[in-house]
Amino acid sequence: MSTVFIALQANEETRPIIDAIEIDNPQAVVNRQPAMVKIDAPGRLVVRRETIEEQLGRAYDLQELQINLITLSGNVDEDEDTLTLSWNE
Amino acid sequence: MDMKATKKKLGMKERYRVLTRDLGWEPGYQSKEAIFPYVRYEGIKVHDWDKWEDPFRLTMDAYWKYQAEKERKFYAIIDAHAQNNGHLNLTDARYLSALKIFLQAISPGEYAAHKGFARIGREFPGVGTQVACQMQAIDEIRHAQTQIHAMSNYNRYYDGFHAFADARDRIWYTSVARSFFDDAMSAGPFEFMIAIGFSFEYVLTNLLFVPFMSGAAYNGDMATVTFGFSAQSDEARHMTLGLECIKFMLEQDPDNLPIVQGWIDKWFWRGFRVLGLVSTMMDYMLPKRVMSWREAWEIYGVENGGALFRDLARYGIRPPKGWDDAEQAIDHMSHQFMLGLYQWSFGTAFHSWIPSDDDMAWLSAKYPDTFDRHYRPRWAHIKKLKAAGTPFKNYGLARLCQCCQLPCVFTEPGDPTLTCHRETVYKGEKYQFCSDGCKDIFEHEPEKYIQAWLPMPALFSELGGDVAAWMDWVNLRDGADNGDYDGSRDQKHFDEWRGLATSNL
Ligand SMILES: [Fe+2]
Ligand SMILES: [Fe+2]
Ligand SMILES: [Zn+2]
Question: One MF term from GO for this chain (chain A) (predicted)?
Fold first, then answer.
């Protein structure tokens, strides 16, 4: 199965976001590199607003991800609650 | 009775519709065909432009808000870097060669991408497409500006940064990136999207910005990490736009498939050749390295590119024609190109050097099948010549590929001991190529590529072969900007200033 991934800058804002992604995607692998964190998952990865809000302790707009996003891979689908990355095979 | 109007917040999909589709209108005085003539030139058939949707559903109001936030973060770090002598935190000033190549070859490409998106935003009829192109046009000019701004701080202290615009237009290795963008900008709007959205964004920027910027962090260059990641946060959106464009064309009409496949073949190879520069920056120019070019290719080329082509197989798309030749080249290209840069270093506005023993040990560990066998002996020979006081300089000029404009330094797929060289005759004139990929591209559009301006032939046709006059013309200061790092002003200054910063003597 193809890998999808999302990479974020390593900073204070993204720490709870990365925690949330790990909670929602138990199959994901988190790679920490200088100044960045790359999260790989087989086939599909979901970023959920609610989980981020729980980790962050405040309301969160998923589009805020744009600020710390480095790169991603897969077909993107986004609405107010989730951002999904997936490959069709 | 009191009516309390509750302000209802629009959902993301609703907001996207209101702030994109609802901004469009049906023309009354002119036909659509007259307003958008270029969209039909390339043979792509589109039946419903409304099917084009930005999956991020980013609207202009949100766009400005987040871009402003990115700029604030960027300038906070750039200011701190300049105020605190950030340049002395570098691992070593050799690292600056990679930055000089970036500024001379890549940042002007950002500006070219800006111009291209401003143009195709006008040429595409769909409103969703127009808005996405408008955002990307603004992003790309931001990238050019923030990169030039971030690197201007290095220009205060080091050689080779001062004339990047002249270098971009006139020097030989920069013409590789320049010809890539000129080729894209002189194509129609759909091909431009494949050239930039697919090849540059999807294939190149991941390899250029992600491991390389992480490498910049590793080498103490906060300025570059900051512009790199700030730019790359937009690139995620750009890659997605490129991928959407490919899917859109393939879904609109089955007749589009062979045209799209042809562009994927062409632009994969064009992009791969630009990566020749990047591979060398990664394997040779970072004093501390996060990963080798081979390792980066495994992640972003083989794994990620492979995933994309498996996904697109449902439309009948196959991996690009040059894919296997590319794989053959991965373990060789950075070494072959660095050897080229070193022997022609009189003509580069950056320094190169003989890799240290430690560097060579790292290279042989990362390239166990190729480095010791093919490249270590050459470096050992070059090192011996230098120790004897007769450093190896090649004052002969390189034969350039008529398509990618790289010097023909690469070897045959399957035989790393034989230089790869192709030629073709068109209208009585002979043209040279570095590879089958480049020759195929030429033969498909010969009238385009015979017009290419190549820096080496131009040295003769425009300056009579006078190298000193050429250096003046490209604004290259002999003895300062060029040559071996060992003994350079950059080396001397960096060592002195770092000494001042860390001692009282
Ligand atoms: Fe860019
Ligand atoms: Fe871009
Ligand atoms: Zn070529």
Answer: monooxygenase activity
